[in-house]
């Protein structure tokens, strides 16, 4: 396959960026999208040009490092991560636009790399359970109903890649935050911090400068892990409940 | 608690949802009341007069109407202020857009903001036209039936009204479903039902309102 990649190039956080076109030949339909970028980078290095910076790690679709907006869609045309997107999803001769996640809370570091520290700070605000970590607890001490375990696991699938923010027209982090709130909220271990968790995480999400939710559904469509849009509904319910119960001012 | 609600994006959306539902409830009653026009001038004018005597003798003449107006103004202001603040925040959250643009979301979803502006402008026009009668030529105070006819005998009266009611239908279609999500009553099993309810309410509401100018134009109301 012969492709033209138009890639966002930006030297550093403060430098102005622009789209730059690169022709690339000999692409196999079985290559992953990141392998095409690797191939391009080898070529650029040999030619003495700076390689394209992009985030990647496991390349198995489970770590959440890769973060490419491909042809205006977070992670591209398939519902998976950029690393699991294969070139068979494109046609010979295609021109493909590759851009970084766009959000005020995710500033561009270089080229296609953005700083997703805002997500870490949302987690630090309440995305945890406080448990003693000495010896392992007795396995049957805290029974978890199967339905609750399934629900917790469904939301625990969130890999924190940020595709929801990238896809949302408002740059909102509601789907990410709701996945974390619902994951821990479904389990008995998460019950003691149930109210403070949702209030603190939503407050941190707002403080990071993410937009609000207008329920366009773009986030859930882009999510490579299939976190449902109703996850946001559940978090809204949790937030209203916590606001009533906590009496916080 | 009030501070907590107002400072949060989730809280502001709650204010939007509740104020929107208050206005929607009013509109449903308003639309049903309007349909009395098809029973003739005495029914319609009698109904309009009854609205003023509503709640008597516990309430004074027109008090019920004024209570409703105060609640509505509060809802409109709350809805617009939260929408404005949240929209500004949303725009700031994506300072640099994507080079590769594509159509996002449904038409009803994408037009919520401008649709809302159209509705706000329409409310101003509508009050000047049929409440204060400022812009209504041939209007007589105390004769709502004749005033409605006068409005819909002008081409611009029909166009403004019908366009606004179509915008209302679109706004309600996304807004009602969204309010359910914001207030946390949605769920995966209920989602299809909620979407259907929102669509049906939107169609019935817009259709019921539009029936009046259509009735005047076709001569059913005369």
Automatic annotation (TrEMBL), chain A:
Molecular-function GO terms, alphabetical: 2 iron, 2 sulfur cluster binding; electron transfer activity; metal ion binding
Q: Which cofactor does it need?
A: [2Fe-2S] cluster; [3Fe-4S] cluster
Source organism superkingdom: Bacteria
PROSITE patterns on file: 2FE2S_FER_1 (PS00197), 2FE2S_FER_2 (PS51085), 4FE4S_FER_1 (PS00198), 4FE4S_FER_2 (PS51379)
One of the GO BP terms on file = respiratory electron transport chain
Family annotation (Pfam families) = Fer2_3, Fer4_8
Q: Which UniProt keywords apply?
A: Iron, Iron-sulfur, Metal-binding
List residues of the 4Fe-4S ferredoxin-type domain.
149-179
Transmembrane segments annotated in the record for this chain: none
InterPro entries per UniProt: 2Fe-2S_ferredoxin-like_sf (IPR036010), 2Fe-2S_ferredoxin-type (IPR001041), 2Fe2S_fd_BS (IPR006058), 4Fe4S_Fe-S-bd (IPR017896), 4Fe4S_Fe_S_CS (IPR017900), Beta-grasp_dom_sf (IPR012675), Helical_ferredxn (IPR009051), SDH/FRD_Iron-Sulfur (IPR050573)
**Residue stretches making up the 2Fe-2S ferredoxin-type domain:** 1-102
Q: Which NCBIfam families does the protein's record reference?
A: PRK07570.1 (NF005746)
Record-stated family: Belongs to the succinate dehydrogenase/fumarate reductase iron-sulfur protein family.
What is the protein name given in its UniProt record? Succinate dehydrogenase subunit B
What is the organism of origin for this protein? Actinacidiphila guanduensis
Instruction: Output the lineage of the source organism.
Output: Bacteria, Bacillati, Actinomycetota, Actinomycetes, Kitasatosporales
TrEMBL record, chain B:
Chief localization: membrane
Q: Name one GO cellular component term.
A: membrane
Q: Do you know which InterPro entries this protein is assigned to?
A: Cytochrome_b-558, SQR/QFR_C/D, SuccDH_FuR_B_TM-su
Q: Which GO terms describe its molecular function?
A: metal ion binding
Transmembrane residue ranges = 21-39, 63-84, 111-128, 154-172, 193-216
Subcellular localization is given as: Membrane
* CDD domains named among the record's database cross-references: SQR_TypeB_2_TM
Write the record's keywords in alphabetical order, separated by commas.
Answer: Heme, Iron, Membrane, Metal-binding, Transmembrane, Transmembrane helix
Q: What is this protein called?
A: Succinate dehydrogenase subunit C
